[in-house]
Specification:
The protein is of the alpha+beta class. The protein is built from five helices and nine strands; from the N terminus they run E-H-E-E-E-H-E-H-E-E-E-E-H-H. About 25% of the residues lie in helices and about 30% in strands.
Length: about 150
């Protein structure tokens, strides 16, 4: 079995959050979904677990921060092209998210934007030139001087 990542997020309104993640390309996995949690699968190896606040508290005694006021993590997803980055952010906005909660990053070899889900969780979506991904970005000093 391939190694997987499960990103667990506390959410205030589970149906609203499920609808948001479906609108941006995640698929609900009903075998692991009930009234307190929803497994939202992006790929064979990436799953976001949406957990009601009550269910979240079954896993940790730590306080649930208000993600609209503070940030603990930023989850990042690669995309196939700059256009796919923009399309992902546009879909998030149409589904009730907030676009560009962090500055847009355009370094030529890499392009990224961000969005917040309805609970304020930050997602970065980015594209990197395949040559830069394989060999590194190279000398960016000329670009920085421009």
């Amino acid at each position: 079995m391939a190694q997987m990542i499960f990103v667990n997020l506390p959410v205030a309104d589970l149906p609203r959050s499920k609808a948001f993640y479906e609108a941006i390309g995640f698929a609900n996995e009903p075998k692991f979904t009930d009234d307190t949690a929803a497994a939202m699968q992006l790929s064979e190896t990436i799953v976001v677990m949406l957990l009601t606040h009550a269910r979240w508290k079954d896993f940790t005694a730590k306080e649930i921060p208000d993600a609209k006021r503070s940030a603990q993590v930023m989850n990042a997803l690669s995309r196939e092209s700059r256009q796919d980055v923009d399309a992902q952010v546009d879909a998030a906005v149409r589904a009730g998210g907030v676009a560009d909660c962090n500055p847009v990053q355009d370094h030529g070899f890499m392009y990224g934007r961000s969005f917040e889900d309805p609970d304020g969780h930050i997602w970065e979506t980015f594209w990197m030139d395949p040559a830069a991904a394989e060999h590194g970005p190279g000398d960016q000093s000329a670009e920085a001087d421009a």
